[in-house]
């Protein structure tokens, strides 16, 4: 039990409170295979560029010395000007090249991360998805890796070169005069201390910021997705209110983070370039004492006052570091979430009998399936029935391992489904959902999800068997008709028949069918029943049944009551027993009679 339970429980949508400042580096080491050499080269080139940026400052210093010495001439000025110009142009080119490389490296890393996340997500338990609003999950997978761009494309080359150059020049300054060098660098630790404290303050809020961002994305996606219901109930004001509040909360946190960062951040900015205020008085004192000459002072005034400038390039990086680290922490969390176990084994199965043995399962800590055992015979039709919320859909979802059982086991042909490789299990079991999901794309593309590379003849045969061919060919573009997102252009019955055609194409020996609760019209329902009979032929069919007349001929009916097995048997025997099924049947036939009378009354009125 422990493993699956942990998988389900670790799958929630918790946002960590604080970021891990080393998370980005860990991701880069693990997923940056194609990016690392480019980054090293880029940092190298960027260091060259920053060194070249210092050349004009050195040139000014040399000219000042020449002026002091009285050796300055027009030729000297011209040649130094040329050196400065060449350095500026070369620096510009090197920096361009460095940034070009670092951007390619960033895109490679982001690409590798997205791919790794997409692969990983496909193997996560469904509980992970259920715990998130779709907008929040989209933000996590699409937006968060993007944040690494600032770090990799700008932060690393500019940061490494800035710190490298700063250190090299610091050593140079100390080599010339250690007292003046101390005066030049004394403010730097204070500036960095302030910056670290600013980062610490923002990092404390970044968990809230992230959660607010997920809430905002979720609220907006839900607002747009629920537009039809909102309009019907004329509730646009209130629903917009919820989305608007989420946006305001997000903006408020962002503003507060800015307020926390800016005072210290601005002071960092000021102190980094303020060392001239220390260099000048210390230099004057040393000159007075006769231990520093004018050229020495000029050196520190010109070079010492400017050499911290490259560190300003880190400002933007520092400002964003909490967000970048949080994004990396979240990505690490996703990639570290335990996936479903997969033995990868292919097992020769003697038959396709599905057996539940003392199965327990629940969501979060709440158990909803209690010790259920039954057998769905090979090639037989087994129906799961029970009052709403009794656990029918949950039980069905355990067969293709949308979730793993907590206790007990489910076997297919005598083998625990967790021992069968996921690829094989997916070939063995087709699942037709109650809410049929159709991707935006053509009908043919949607059908081919059942069998990649299926020929046109195969598509048509499956669609005919699913009683879908006629309505497909009646569409203007036939099988090439494009469906809107989620297949919005088709009726519920048509979507269900496409899903059945897809399952027929897949030709899996076990079909799990979560029967749709309502269909648009009796014609459509009759067509679906025919399609289902085709689908069930020679296959093990497990159907979650809502309309009991459709399963009167089932080989076995499994009746659930609040997650427990209440009774099993065939329709006639169960009705005769007078238990829960008999009551459900009585309610169902009474409801049918009422709707029949309603229809007759409507017809009579016409
Ligand atoms: N993703 C989920 N997270 C938490 N609880 C869930 C989830 N899905 C279902 N449940 C709960 O599990 C129990 C069984 O639900 P399930 O949907 O399996 O019942 P059902 O018999 O199929 O219901 P219906 O006939 O209304 O579709 C219910 O109490 C339900 O609230």
TrEMBL record:
Assigned keywords, A-Z? ATP-binding, Cell membrane, Membrane, Nucleotide-binding, Transmembrane, Transmembrane helix, Transport
Q: Name one GO molecular function term.
A: ABC-type transporter activity
Ranges of residues in domain ABC transporter = 354-587
Please report the name of this protein according to its UniProt entry: ATP-binding cassette, subfamily B
Q: SUPFAM superfamilies this protein is in?
A: ABC transporter transmembrane region, P-loop containing nucleoside triphosphate hydrolases
GO CC entries:
plasma membrane
One Pfam family in the UniProt entry: ABC_membrane
Q: Which residues form the ABC transmembrane type-1 domain?
A: 40-323
Q: Where in the cell does this protein reside? A: Cell membrane
Query: Sorted alphabetically, which InterPro entries does this protein's record hold?
Result: AAA+_ATPase, ABC1_TM_dom, ABC1_TM_sf, ABC_transporter-like_ATP-bd, ABC_transporter-like_CS, P-loop_NTPase, Type_1_exporter
Membrane-crossing residues? Answer: 38-61, 81-110, 148-174, 180-199, 266-286
Name the principal localization, coarsely classed.
membrane
Q: How does it sit in the membrane?
A: Multi-pass membrane protein
Species whose genome carries this gene: Roseovarius pacificus
